[in-house]
Design a protein that fits this description.
Blueprint (H helix, E strand, L loop, with lengths): L4 E10 L11 H5 L4 H15 L4 E11 L13 H10 L11 H7 L2 H7 L4 E6 L8 E4 L21 E7 L4 H19 L9 H5 L33 E3 L15 E3 L9 H10 L3 E6 L2 E4 L1 H5 L5
Parallel strand pairs: 1-2, 1-3, 3-5
Antiparallel strand pairs: 4-5, 6-7, 8-9
Helix pairs in contact: 2-8, 6-8
């Protein structure tokens, strides 16, 4: 029996006011997804595919009536931004958001230290300048983005997720999946050959003909290109053996896209995440519950 892990989340929602007869803010004016609905579905999906292990809870939600500031000091105006979206051009070229300013403006490092905040989720529109995930704190390492140096004196690592509320839960799961890929590469960084079980987990037909396993976030076992989750061709794969981890002695089976949702992004990502091991014990010094690394980077 593995006890669940409880994660306290700070949610920052950047949703600037606009002058519109139809709406008060950018999200309403553009008809994009409600953040609370996205959050609820994302929480439920992670809990389900981790078999109850990942218990996220938003303990503080801050609604920000502005765009986040860019690293060069630029900040969008809500109505000007709507015009750019309708025209499809004119966006600020230096896109990167100023993470240092965000940490300072919302006392995030202090909240991690004193209030037990484990993770930060930022929601914003397209061109907000967020990385999908970025790690901060003492000993932070690459997590689908360079480690954030500001806040290094924080005694533990924490992850800042960046979500686009124009998109859906499938894209949120993709961001989590890339975070998982980066963290597991770090876990297995010193393991070579067949001892590197993460390398084995991610094999797919394009890189390992007739030896595919679960694949990656972008590549299903039979994919021939990025995002090719709906490819109907059948391949021989050992993806099902991972359901019995750490026993990987099962025989390969013929599979196709029906196995992971027939091309649906969210269904593929849920299928992929369900195959990440979550059992007791350890194997060659690595926990058999890989989810503990994905949720708490301090355990890496």
């Amino acid at each position: 029996m593995i006890d669940p892990i409880h994660v306290k989340v700070l949610s920052l929602v950047f949703n600037p006011a606009v002058k519109s007869r139809r709406a008060k803010n950018l999200l309403e004016a553009m008809g994009w997804n409600e953040v609370d609905i996205l959050t609820a579905r994302y929480l439920a999906d992670l809990r389900e595919c981790s078999r109850g292990y990942a218990r996220y809870r938003v303990v503080e939600r801050i609604q920000v009536d502005a765009f986040p500031v860019k690293e060069d000091g630029f900040r969008y105006d809500g109505n000007e931004f709507m015009g750019m979206m309708h025209r499809g051009r004119g966006f600020h070229k230096a896109d990167q958001v100023d993470y240092r300013q965000i940490l300072e403006d919302y006392q995030i490092v202090e909240k991690v230290r004193t209030e037990g905040i484990d993770e930060v989720w930022m929601f914003g529109p397209p061109y907000a300048g967020f990385f999908e995930s970025r790690m901060a704190g003492s000993g932070a390492f690459f997590c689908n983005a360079p480690p954030l140096k500001h806040g290094e004196d924080t005694p533990r690592r924490f992850i800042i997720m960046g979500f686009n509320y124009e998109r859906g839960v499938g894209e949120m799961l993709e961001s989590f999946g890339h975070r998982a890929e980066a963290i597991m590469r770090q876990v297995y960084r010193d393991r070579l050959g067949e001892d590197n079980l993460w390398e084995r987990f991610t094999r797919h037909e394009k890189t390992h003909p007739e030896r595919s396993e679960v694949g990656t976030v972008h590549y299903a076992p039979n994919s021939v290109a990025d995002y090719d989750w709906g490819n109907p061709r059948r391949v021989l794969s050992r993806c099902r053996t991972w359901e019995s981890y750490p026993d990987l002695s099962g025989e390969p089976a013929w599979v196709d896209s029906r196995e992971w949702g027939g091309g649906d992004m969210r269904m593929h990502h849920l299928w992929w995440l369900r195959h990440i091991p979550r059992t007791s014990g350890e194997n060659n010094g690595v926990s058999n519950n890989w989810w503990e690394y994905l949720i708490d980077p301090c355990r890496v």
